[in-house]
Amino acid sequence: MHNKIFPIAKTFALLKPFINTSKAPVVEFIALQDKDPFKILIATILSSRTNDTTTTKVIQRLFKVVKNISSLETVPHDELEKLIFPVGFYKQKAIQLKKLPLVLKNNFNGIIPDEIDQLIKLPGVGRKTANLVRWAAFGKPAICVDVHVHRICNRWGYVKTKDPEETEMLLREILPRQYWPFINHYLVSLGQTICKPRNPKCKTCPLIDICAKIKVNH
DNA sequence: AAAACGGGGGC
DNA sequence: GCCCCAGTTTT
Length: 218
What we know:
By secondary structure, the chain is mainly α. Helix content is 59%, strand content 0%.
C-alpha cells in the first residue's frame, strides 16, 4: 500500500512558521466565533469551489435573512438565489439548500448529524464538506482532503490515486489523530503558494529536504 | 481578455 | 468514467 515513511512531526514543524494563522479558512473562521452547526454547514456547502473572500461576503448577508433551518424553508427560492449568487453554481446550491430541511427532518429528526456517513447524505455535502463540518461544527476528529491535500499527498508519492477518499483513508492510517485538524490548513497554505498544481516552486519550499518525491524513488 | 480557481451530483 | 454546474480573482 504505502512503503514510505511520513516524517510527520518534522513536516509540521517546518511548515508552522510558514502558515499565516490570521488567514484561516472561512469555515474555521466562522467556527471560531459562532459554533452554530447550521451556520457552519451552510457556509461549508457554499464554500465548495469558491474562494473564501466571496464566501464570507455572501454568508454575512445570507445569515441576516436565514438564521436557522426553518427560515431556510420559508425564504423564497429566488431570493435565496440572489443572496448566494456571487459564490457561483448558485442554481444548484440554492436547490440543495432548499432541500436541506426536508432531508434533515426525514432522516435525522431535524438535527444536523456529526458522522461522515450521515453528513454525506445531505444535499451539497460530499466527503470534503462532511469532514470539514464534522471538525468545525462538532470538534470531532476528521481529515479534510481537498484538492490541495490530495495533490500534495500524490506528489509526495504516499498514494497514487484519482480518488480523494483513498487519500483520506491513507492519512487516517499514517497520521496521528492530533494532527488531523491541521493537515488541511497546512497543506492548503503550502498548495496555494508553493506546491501548486503546475510549476511548483520547489526551490523555495520549506519541505525541500524531506519531500518524498525528491528523496525517495521507486 | 484569458486563464486559474475551493467540489458535488447526475448519468 | 464523463460531463455539467458559474461566479470571482489573478495573470
